[in-house]
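[step 3/7] fold_predict: job queued, chain A
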Amino acid sequence: MNLMNQKKIFVSGFLLLVCFFTSCNNNSEPAQTNTQKKAVLTAEGFVVKSAPFQSEYSASGTLLPNEEIQILPEVSGRVTSITFNEGTHVEQGQALVKIYNDDIKAQIQKLKAQKELQIKIKNRQTELLRIGGISQQDYETTTTQIQSIDADIAYSEALLRKTTIYAPFPGKIGIRNISVGAVVTPSTVIATLQQTRILKMDFTVPDQYKEEMVIGKKINFTITGGLDTFYGTISAIEPSADAVTRTIKVRSLVENTNHKLGPGSFTHVIIPLENNKSALMIPSQAIIPTDRDKEVAVIKSGKAKLVTVKTGTRTNDAVEIIQGLSAGDTIITTGIMQVKQGLEVKVKFSKR
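[step 4/7] structure written:
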């Protein structure tokens, strides 16, 4: 074989190799394009169903005694006896403290003696007036003096009653701040009396729930550090909302016959709201927040469709959908950050 023939064979082989590699490259490009077109997101789905739902609102409250006063004397004087044991229960009308009153009793005796004398004078003047022995003016002066003495006696007896302090209602009396022999004035705090068999609980709710607050409505609550659930009844509602916080003050009454609760305790209050018999509840993670609205990815014909929704009440792991979804819709609950409009989705259904 001469040199010319060898060169021809070499060129022919080189051209065949070039054609082969070019053909391979052309065949690989469509394969990559098809892979991109068939991109599918595998995500977990959830079928929307309607079910009864009792919404509720949580608030913070404070327990207060049903009645509470500071025991103060109405008159000044020296304490002669203390007839209660601090920290115990007292009954309504029970005497608590007595203040020295012998001077007032003596004054009453003096006034009564003066009255008796004026009554005798009046009786004699009645006979004299009948026969014209005295004037009508003298008789009326004596009558007026008797009435004046009666007023002085009534005033002194009122002062006498004030020297004994009585419990105005049944309750638990606190620590006393005085001792026998102490001189007290109307500004001296003797002790505090609280009625704790029934407690008040005050809490606030947003103005939007005003219509849900009805006198007689039952609520439940727990106290910090306790596991028991307690119950109360709404007894009073402020007629207007606070201009700053836009909240309404609500008061409820709580039975405390077993004395497990104490005034001043912080409470976690649960107020039941309206009962929706056909609420649409979906998992919270299915919500896609946007700048203006909230969206949910709905599966339509195997593709994702982003739908704007309006949400309502939330629970620990679910949210109520008020507008945007219907019962029977299938939504995506995982991989929502990868969802785009029209993306093909392969759904695996959750066990919710």
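[step 5/7] annotate
The longest strand covers residues 50-71.
The mean pLDDT is 86.
exit 0
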